[in-house]
Amino acid sequence: MVLPGIKISDLTDVTLNGNIPQTDPAGWRLVVGQDSHGQHKWVYLDEDDPRRSSWAQSTVDKYWLGLDIVREEKENVDHAAKSPG
């Protein structure tokens, strides 16, 4: 199986040069299934996929990918975690 955004020719480069192809972290989205008992599934959207601009990464997506989270987003997450629910 080849990862989205990676061509077979890229995999040849791994064996010859030791380079490991990577996907763009900004393309990943985490989907939590409502009907599948909370199953987590990562979806990769290529740069030319129209859903990429309309489906923004959530703070949770960015957190698990190790991407920068804007201070304002952190405060919103902290506030939501502290509020009784």
Automatic annotation (TrEMBL):
This is Uncharacterized protein. The lineage of its organism: Eukaryota, Fungi, Dikarya, Basidiomycota, Agaricomycotina. It comes from the Eukaryota. It comes from Naganishia vaughanmartiniae.
